[in-house]
């Protein structure tokens, strides 16, 4: 059994408490590793190390900082298969998906920000012939980075890469449900020669380790991705301390299909946007709205394709849908399927736990589920389920679908399928979402701002938005 360790001050160490938590492989329903049950004392050691490393790292020539980060990215690529297997074992996702998406994206995140720092320039403003203003953006200090379980290494690197590139030192906490790849990553940091204390990874529970990071007075910026309820708690702690906050939270994203869409693209991409990673991607479109003339056809063809998705052992190359992340999460998703039926929904396909033959017999599998017949404002259509469950609803007019789409407390992303250019702009402008995909989904350019409106978050990640988050701005005005 693997024993995961903290990465503090350049060393792999056990927790101060000496206690470990069990880590379950969701596809087989068994404990396969253990992780440190760390507490505020471990966080303090991490902060001390980050503080000691700060002056050298923040003052290091960007070329040198970049070279170390690029070396880490190369090592991720070298270990692609090992990391993908670990991600699949820990999270439940098909290993094929981890090989194609999660791990390559982790190295891409690091390369993107490592090279970006070379181009991160200050602005100057010439005020006639009276003054010159210049603006500096210097590293903010020790950054606290807290990430969730759905895309473990992908989202972990999405936070720490801009922080490290900007010159911050970091105290990070991956999800206690998926700590393995962050642990393997810490070994790669050591191999790449990342100076001790620059990145510190403290494993353990959110209310212990996460809370200690958020409360720590020496950590001025918190970058958090996770649930909206946790985000509220973090904001309540951090706001009176005047910390800088970046919160990437939940979603209940609409997928809007007009009758004039490119049918095949809309259909095939909607299957992906509904069920990729078992529907456990914050950008998944969980509410599908279809224009009435093509509604029946869409329900029938979509359901047929969903029925053909293979659910099963994540190590099997043919499998499209792996295990959901935990037993508790499986029960939560199943409880929403029961609720949907109580609210009058019709299960078009799926709707139940699946038992997989062989080594995965005790795993947490749910058949991809399509539900129709629900009103847009019922709980099933308003609350985040975050699993392999979608609803489909008909609409008649643009006004109506905009009302439905914008009706939730969330506003992360929306997808729009139409070949009508003016409608594209009209609808995109009125959607209350931080991200709108038109005739595509998850077509990522890392330079674009990423994040949500309303209760989907505060602030944006990606590109210069992230670099600005991890830096403090100062304007110097010189009278001529
Ligand atoms: P979660 O909020 O339960 O946990 C996220 C992280 O926060 C974990 O590391 C956890 O240990 C930590 N945490 C828990 N309590 C804490 C506290 N009091 N203080 C500090 N940290 C604490 O979320 P999850 O279940 O791991 O992830 C699923 C959620 O994440 C979904 O709601 C999903 O929509 C959201 N998500 C959002 C995005 C985005 O970019 N907007 C991306 C991925 C996932």
TrEMBL record:
UniProt keyword NAD present: yes
Keyword flag Magnesium: no
Aldehyde dehydrogenase domain: residues covered: 17-476
Record keywords: NAD, Oxidoreductase
Domain of life according to the entry: Bacteria
Signal peptide span: none
List of catalytic residues: 248
A GO molecular function held by the record: aldehyde dehydrogenase [NAD(P)+] activity
InterPro entries: Ald_DH/histidinol_DH, Ald_DH_C, Ald_DH_CS_CYS, Ald_DH_CS_GLU, Ald_DH_N, Aldehyde_DH_dom
Family stated for the protein in its record: Belongs to the aldehyde dehydrogenase family.
Protein name, UniProt field: 2-hydroxymuconic semialdehyde dehydrogenase
Organism in which the protein naturally occurs: Chryseotalea sanaruensis
């Amino acid at each position: 059994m693997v024993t995961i360790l903290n990465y503090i001050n350049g060393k792999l160490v056990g927790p101060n408490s000496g206690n470990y938590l069990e880590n379950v492989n969701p596809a087989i329903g068994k404990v396969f590793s253990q992780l440190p049950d760390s507490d505020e004392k471990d966080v303090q050691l991490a902060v001390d190390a980050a503080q000691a490393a700060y002056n050298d790292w923040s003052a290091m020539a960007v070329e040198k900082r970049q070279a170390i980060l690029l070396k880490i990215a190369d090592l991720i690529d070298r270990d692609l298969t090992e990391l993908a297997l670990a991600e699949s074992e820990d999270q439940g996702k098909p290993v094929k998906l981890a090989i194609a998406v999660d791990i390559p994206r982790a190295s891409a995140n690091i390369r993107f920000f490592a090279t970006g720092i070379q181009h991160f320039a200050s602005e100057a403003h010439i005020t006639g012939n009276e003054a010159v203003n210049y603006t500096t953006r210097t590293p903010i200090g020790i950054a606290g980075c807290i990430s969730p379980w759905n895309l473990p290494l992908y989202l972990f690197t999405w936070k720490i890469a801009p922080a490290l590139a900007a010159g911050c030192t970091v105290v990070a906490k991956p999800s206690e449900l998926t700590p393995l790849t962050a642990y393997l990553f810490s070994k790669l940091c050591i191999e790449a020669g990342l100076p001790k204390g620059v990145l510190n990874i403290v494993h353990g529970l959110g209310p212990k380790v996460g809370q200690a990071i958020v409360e720590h007075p020496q950590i001025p910026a918190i970058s958090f991705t996770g649930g909206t309820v946790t985000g509220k708690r973090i904001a309540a702690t951090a706001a009176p301390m005047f910390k800088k906050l970046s919160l990437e939270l939940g979603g209940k994203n609409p997928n809007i299909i007009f009758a004039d869409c490119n049918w095949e693209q809309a259909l095939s991409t909607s299957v992906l946007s509904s069920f990729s990673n078992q529907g456990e991607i914050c950008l998944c479109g969980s509410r599908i709205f279809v224009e009435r003339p093509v509604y029946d056809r869409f329900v029938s063809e979509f359901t047929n394709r969903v029925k053909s998705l293979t659910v099963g052992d994540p190590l099997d190359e043919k499998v499209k849908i792996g295990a959901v992340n935990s037993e508790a999460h499986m029960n939560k998703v199943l409880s929403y399927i029961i609720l949907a039926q109580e609210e009058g929904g019709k299960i078009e396909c799926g709707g139940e736990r699946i038992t997989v033959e062989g080594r995965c017999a005790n795993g947490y599998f749910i058949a991809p589920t399509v539900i129709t017949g629900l009103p847009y404002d019922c709980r099933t259509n308003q609350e985040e389920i975050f699993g392999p469950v979608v609803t489909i609803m008909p609409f008649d007019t643009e006004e109506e679908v905009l009302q439905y789409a914008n009706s939730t407390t969330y506003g992360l992303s929306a997808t729009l399928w139409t070949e009508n250019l003016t409608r594209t702009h009209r609808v995109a402008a009125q959607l209350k979402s931080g991200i709108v995909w038109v005739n595509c989904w998850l077509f990522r350019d890392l330079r674009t701002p990423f994040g949500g409106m309303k209760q989907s978050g505060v602030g944006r990640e990606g590109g210069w938005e992230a670099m600005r988050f991890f830096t403090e701005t100062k304007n110097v005005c010189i009278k001529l």
